[in-house]
TrEMBL record, chains A, B:
Subcellular location: Cytoplasm
Protein name: tRNA (cytidine/uridine-2'-O-)-methyltransferase TrmJ
Naturally occurring in which organism (per UniProt): Methylobacterium komagatae
Coiled coil: none
Keyword tRNA processing applies: yes
Gene3D superfamilies hit by this protein: 1.10.8.590, 3.40.1280.10
Residue ranges of domain tRNA/rRNA methyltransferase SpoU type in the record: 19-167
Superkingdom, taxonomy of origin: Bacteria
Length: 253, 253
């Protein structure tokens, strides 16, 4: 996708987005997909606490599908305490109740809180693939984030959890612009153009012998309403009128 | 996670959630992760149009991490037209402008529209991993969904796109309950309990010789405010009072 300079300006400098902290992640696939999910929503700072079986991992760059800048800038830490030391605010993600008297937020609520903390650097802790964060690690966080998953199948993939947080951060921070809009390429049709279309359509259907005479009024009003529902623009009416002219000519020949 | 019957009742029957339609998906990993993402948010109906290199694919069940019911119930179609035939409303996901005069929605807007279509069955088209949907396939849809991704890294993984749509459907349909809440396990402390805590804390600090006499008033008021910011509950106050008693005893001995 090519980008205009206006779009580029909309991206704010790093440091404003939250830091993503993966605690003892195991699978290269998940770390790579985490980097990709972060880049999708403008997050860039990744920290890894004791990645299992060492770092860098084989296959992690392939899984990142081009988001290698996130991996290249990732920092490794020996403990959660060290990984969060410079932050002002930390959220811990967990799927289970911990019996800790802690605030619990959905991702959108948490990111609204985070965005409101002007001048603070915030981080989000994500636990091990199978067992999540320990209770002691959760106790280092200001508050908990949990996801509104189906109770029938609550097991969320690590990179998917990161994606949802990144997506909600982008929305909460006012950056959630769509890459293109559905603006009509032509202005709405004037009512004069619509009445001319009705006239030509009804003349073509008269010529084709479509209307039972006693029902012409009702059918005509219903068809006009179908056309109203289409919310036609000027270009649409020109296309429609052209098709009617071609059909009318063909019927006469 | 064990589920209570109350939680089970919150899940509505299938048919109300949108159908997910993958058009010529290639990678088993993506199809399996799609099934998992669907199950996470209560979607269950998966349709595949001409999966590349046949079906079932090797490795797809492993990638679904237990969401095999979605894969087992998946239906295969030879064309998009057949895959959407019984639906009343179809959205096409795309990352690029198509020059089609079509409504363009963010995932949350699209799911709000979809949830409002009572009694209609709706489906969402997701294109091929590399090239997405063709323009002709997009033209079969009522409207477009696109994602508010960073212009610096817009390439969203297929299963991640499905995840975001499923997540927003769950929110829009009022099912986005968290698996647990942050309700305090103990009622808020009464102001009588707080004043008793202030008294004991200040007595302990007096006994320890902490306060410069001329600053006692100001420091005391600041510390009382710190305690107010903690929004303590009854259990918190009991824990705090116990700690103060232990410290006071230790200072006297």
């Amino acid at each position: 996708m090519t980008r205009t300079s206006a779009e580029k300006e909309l991206e704010l400098p790093p440091g404003t987005a939250p830091v993503v902290i993966l605690v003892e992640p195991q699978l290269a696939e998940n770390i790579g997909m985490t980097a990709r999910a972060m880049a999708n929503f403008g997050l860039s700072e990744l920290r890894l606490v004791n990645p299992k079986n060492g770092w860098p991992k084989k296959g992690v760059r392939e899984a990142a599908s081009g988001a290698t800048h996130v991996l290249d800038d990732a920092h490794i830490f020996a403990s959660v305490e060290e990984a969060i030391a410079d932050l002002h605010c930390v959220f811990a993600t967990t799927a289970r109740e911990r019996g800790q008297m802690k605030r619990v937020f959905a991702p959108d609520e948490a990111m609204a809180d985070l965005v409101g903390r002007e001048g603070q650097r915030c981080g989000i802790l994500f636990g091990r693939e199978r067992v999540g964060l320990t209770n002691d690690e959760v106790s280092l966080a200001d508050a908990i984030i949990t996801f509104p998953v189906s109770p029938d199948f609550p097991s969320l993939n690590l990179a998917q959890a990161v994606l949802l947080v990144g997506y909600e951060w982008r929305k909460a921070s006012g950056r959630a612009r769509l890459p293109f809009s559905g603006e009509m390429l032509s202005p709405p049709a004037t009512r004069e153009a619509m009445v001319a279309l009705f006239t030509n359509l009804e003349a073509a259907l008269d010529a084709a012998g479509f209307y039972p005479p006693e029902k012409r009024g009702g059918i005509t009003r219903n068809m006009r309403d179908m056309l109203h529902r289409m919310a036609l623009n000027e270009q649409d009416v020109r296309t429609f009128q052209g098709a009617l002219r071609a059909i009318s000519r063909a019927m006469k020949s």
